[in-house]
Amino acid sequence: MAEVIAGELRLLRPEVRCVPELFAALLHPEFREIGASGRIWDRAAVVFELGPEASPDDPAATASGLRAVRIGDDLIQLRFDTDNNGRRAHRSSLWRRTGGRWLLWFHQGTLFTDSTGGERPAP
């Protein structure tokens, strides 16, 4: 599970997100994301539309409350919160082992504030 957590934390780093090859190397070929806007992203769209928005000089989002749950031999769910300059989100990621490597297969983030449910859900 440590490899999955390390991979997720790498994805939060702007110096990884802004280099398409580094960013894509952590994503499963079938990757999908449901963004806070409700838009569904595939691997190519995330890498080539969201990645270039990052600058290596941007501050990294901070992650807290990371919890990993093994769902199957080759599937791990990671739940956590992020804070990116005051923009906070509850996040859930599914990492799938493919070809001996853990790759991000699915991700969803939901924005929150203290007034909209910032309290931590039960584990």
TrEMBL record:
InterPro entries: DUF4440, NTF2-like_dom_sf. Residues 8-104 form the DUF4440 domain. It comes from the Bacteria. SUPFAM superfamilies: NTF2-like (SSF54427). Transmembrane segments: none annotated. This is DUF4440 domain-containing protein. It comes from Streptomyces tsukubensis.
